[in-house]
Every structure is written in structure tokens, then in C-alpha cells.
């Protein structure tokens, strides 16, 4: 939920920047994720798809923009973008390969980790809020 009025293009650009930074890190020898040539092609396609989901109008303060990531039965990851409960669209990764020693790099999981991973790129206060909410909901 944006803390002040903004526009979708501003939010989109911030998310794309976070994904690109993590993709750059995934290309390093010390990477935590595997970014194969095939995954590079899928990432490029997924970035284009993600950019197209954002409408061209303002996001009002207090309105919700939800990013939902789930693993499918086909071993892909699906990202759903919703504004005030209405789905704007989805982005689906290629099937996650389990042949490598590192987890595969996918746009949906990378965007999720940019928010809630150990080293969040986007918002440390949001990460803490999510963690607190999850802890409150667990037995």
C-alpha cells in the first residue's frame, strides 16, 4: 500500500530496477541463484509482461497494490498483480529447473525476495511488517 499518492509508472520502475539489480547479482560467480541463458530469455519476456500490467494512472494513498506469488503444479511461479482486489494480470515463469546446485532465478520469486528476503532492496519497514503479520497468524 503506497504511503502517499503516486503513479503506477513510478511503482513499476522501482520494481523493475530491483529485479534488474538482483539479476545482475545472479550473474556473478558468487551468486545465490542460477541465471542460465534460458532463464535470461524468460526474464526478458517476463519483464516485458510485468511492465505491461501497470495502467497509466495515479495510485491513490490508501489503495492497495498486491503482489501475489505462488508455485504452480507445473513447477512454475506465477505472479499476480492486483489493485484494490482487482487483478491487473499475471506473469508466469518458465518451469523451474532442479538440475543445478543453485535455486533457479525467476522474476516472481526475485520480486518477492526483493521485499521480504534477508537483504530486502525495497522496504525494510515493509519486510518487518510482513514478518510480524505472519508471526501473528501462526500458532
TrEMBL record:
It comes from the Eukaryota. Residues 1-131 form the Chalcone isomerase domain. InterPro entries: Chalcone_isomerase, Chalcone_isomerase_3-sand. This is Chalcone isomerase domain-containing protein. It comes from Malassezia globosa (strain ATCC MYA-4612 / CBS 7966) (Dandruff-associated fungus).
